[in-house]
Amino acid sequence: MAGAGRLLKDSDKIVFGEFWTAKQRQGHPIHHTVSYRASFKPELPSFFMKEFLKKKNRVVYDPFGGRGTTAIQANIEGHAAIHNDIHPLSIFLASARQYVPKLVDLEKKLNSLDLDKEVEEDPFDIYLYPFFHPRTLKEIKNLKKYMVMDDSVEMKFISLIALSRLHGHSTGFFSVYTFPQVSIPSEAQAKNNAKKGITPEYRPIKPRIFQKMKRDLALPIPPFYHEFSKNNIYSLNSANSVPNVDSESVDLIVTSPPFLDKVDYEGDNWLRHWFLDIQKSKDRKLSIFSNINDWNEFIRSTLKESARVLKKGAYMVMEVGEVKKGNSILYLDEDVVRMAEGTGLVWNKTYVHTQSFTKLSNCWQVSNNEKGTNSNRCVVLRKVN
C-alpha cells in the first residue's frame, strides 16, 4: 500500500465526521443542470469556503474544474472563481453557467428556433441512429447549427440544457433508453435495443429543454451571483501548468484530481463531444493513471503549480479517496501529503467525511466509505513560503 498507515500516527491531524449532508441534490439546482462523472457535491467546497474564507469577494480556484461545482458554489457564496480543466467539455459546462438568463428570456429564444429544417445526411449519422429517432436527430442537428451562429448567453444556456438531455434513461431525454452519465458505444446501444426489443421513438426536443430549464431555475439565483461570476476565469490547461493564473492571486483552492483507473473522460463523453463539435486531439492528454508512481509525480507537479498561484498563508483542499488496486487499498490522501513535501505547501489537516449510502454509490455498486467514488478524504495544505 502506498503510504499505508503513515498518517495514522498523526491522529490529531485527522478528523472524522459528517461535515456535510450525504443526501443527494441538496445544493442549488443550477449545480445539477448536467451530470458529469466523478463530481463532488457542492456542500464540499461550501464547507471549506466557510472554514477558510472569513471575508467575501475572495478568489477560489479549482485546477481540476470538472462540472464546475467549485466555481458555481464560489459565485453563490460571494466569491470570484477560476475554473481550470484540460477537457474542453468541462470549460463549456462551467462557463455556460457564468451567466444564468431569466426563464422568460430563455423561453423566448427557444421558441424562436426553427428546428424542422431539412438537414443533410452525414456518414456519422449511422452511429447516432441507435440513440435517436431520425426526426429527433434532425432537430438536434438544427440546434447545433444555431449554436454555431448564435453566441448569446441565452443560446449557450439552452445548449447546456440540451446537452444534459442528450441521452438518458427516461422519456425526459432525447434518446432511447440508455445510461445518462456515460455515452456507451453505438454498437453496444444497438445490442441493448435489440435485447430490450425497443427502437428510438420520436421525442421533440423543445418541450424537453423547456421543462428541464423550468426545473433548474425554479429556485432563484442569488441576486449577487452575477456580480461575482462576471470576474470568473475559465482556463483550458493541464493542472500542473496554468500560465494564465497569476502568482499569489488565489485565496483558496478546492479540487479533486482524477483517481487511478476511474474515468475515461474521452470515451465516456463521445456523444457530448459530437454535440459540441469537440474534436479529438493528440495534444489533449486527460489524466488517467494506472500506476501510483505516475499519479504521484503528476500530483507533485500540480501541487507545485498550486503553491505558485496561492497567496502566502492560504489553503488548498485536495479531495481524494481510498482506491482498491488488486488486493490492496491505496490511501491517496497519504500520498498527497508526501507529494506536498518541498512544494511550499505543508499538511494542515485531513478531513475524512463519513457518510451513509447514497443513490450514486448504490447505482455504481460502491460500498460505503470503501472506494474513491463514495469516500471523501480531504487533505488540507497551507502555503508557508
Mean pLDDT, nearest integer? 89
The Cα radius of gyration reads: 21 Å
CATH architecture of the largest domain: 3-Layer(aba) Sandwich
Question: How far is it from the N-terminal to the C-terminal residue, by CA?
Answer: 31 Å
Within CATH, the superfamily of the largest domain carries the name Vaccinia Virus protein VP39
Class from secondary-structure proportions: alpha/beta
Number of domains: 2
Number of helices: 14
Q: In percent, how helical is the residue content?
A: 25-40%
Pfam families: N6_N4_Mtase (PF01555)
GO molecular function, one term: N-methyltransferase activity
EC number: 2.1.1.113
InterPro entries: DNA_methylase_N4/N6, MeTrfase_CN4_CS, SAM-dependent_MTases_sf
Explained architecture:
This protein has 14 helices and ten strands. Helix 4 packs across helix 7 and helix 12 (292-309) crosses helix 13. Helix 2 (69-76) links the parallel strand 2 and strand 3. The strands form two sheets. An eight-stranded mixed sheet has the order 1-9-10-6-5-2-3-4, sandwiched between helices. With 385 residues, it is α/β, with parallel strands linked by helices. InterPro entries: DNA_methylase_N4/N6 (IPR002941), MeTrfase_CN4_CS (IPR017985), SAM-dependent_MTases_sf (IPR029063).
Give the SSE map.
Layout: E1 14-17, H1 43-52, E2 59-62, H2 69-76, E3 80-85, H3 88-95, H4 103-111, H5 125-128, H6 134-149, H7 153-164, H8 186-196, H9 205-216, H10 225-229, E4 233-236, E5 250-255, H11 270-276, H12 292-309, E6 310-320, E7 322-325, E8 328-331, H13 332-340, E9 345-353, H14 359-363, E10 376-383
Parallel strand pairs: 1-9, 2-3, 2-5, 3-4, 5-6
Antiparallel strand pairs: 6-10, 7-8, 9-10
Protein name: site-specific DNA-methyltransferase (cytosine-N(4)-specific)
Catalytic activity: a 2'-deoxycytidine in DNA + S-adenosyl-L-methionine = an N(4)-methyl-2'-deoxycytidine in DNA + S-adenosyl-L-homocysteine + H(+)
Enzyme class: transferase
